[in-house]
Amino acid sequence: LVRHGTVSDEETIRDTAVAQPLIVAAGLVAARVLLGDTPLTSATVVAGHSVGELTASAIAGALTEQDAVTLVRTRAQSMAAAASVTPTGMSAVLGGDPDDVAATLERHGLTAANANGGGQVVAAGTLEQLSALAADPPQKARVIQLKVAGAFHTHHMAPAVEALEALRPSLAPVEPLATLLSNYDGEPVASGELNLDSLIAQVSRPVRWDLCMQRLQDMGVSGVLELPPAGTLTGLAKRGMRGTASLAVKAPDDLGAARDFIEEHSRTAPPANAPIAEGNA
After folding, report:
1. How many angstroms separate the CA atoms of 279 and 23, rounded?
2. What is the mean pLDDT of the chain?
3. Is-catalytic flag, 153?
4. Which among 24, 159, 172, 194 has the fewest CB atoms less than 10 Å away?
5. Residue 258's CATH number
6. Quick check: is 78 catalytic?
7. Which pLDDT belongs to residue 43?
8. Is the peptide bond before 137 cis (omega within 30 degrees of 0)?
């Protein structure tokens, strides 16, 4: 992980089996530097998008760091293997009428794998289905092909779910200390076991980040802090959570500003408005 995070080239770290553990490790290292041994409470809300939900679970205390890394290693390897069975991929659909976007995806046999809010949906399916979408997009929408290895968060990832279920007995989930939101419905998870259920099922079902952002707004959070590799979620928050302060930690030089950000929002916000630490997509 140290080698891939410092000297490996872009092509190497794009491999799903490498990228996912690297993303989780980067978030956990940054969280440890920022938070130290300070225990979180339910006043802090933690959420993560897709693989970032593993990072969020460890930060919130629902998984140990070791379990999160063990889980992501199996997740990454099994998802890469599942992606190699059939040529699949994902494309972002930006804009358009939501009903028209949904109807168009259904017409082409695609799954809305990520509902990201702010007018962004990520479609997933076979390369043929995605080509058909590009040729026949929803009205007033742009379709952008994404550089991913497969149709994540769809039925194509069912073998990865089986691999994670086989790993379950070796893991020790516990009740989170911080408030931890689920990608399934945007609601706080009720227990460590239920969170693990959701983490495993998440591999083959859509990510509802739009519901997570709505829940954060409903809770009145005052600030969104995104852990590295950062930028994607703060970008979504600027569109989907207008008026909420945000900060992306992209490099070590950002750590000082991040500490100030945490202090500011912890000091000025009432318990219902506590800051958020987010894992990345």
Report:
1. 9
2. 92
3. yes
4. 172
5. 3.40.366.10
6. no
7. 86
8. no
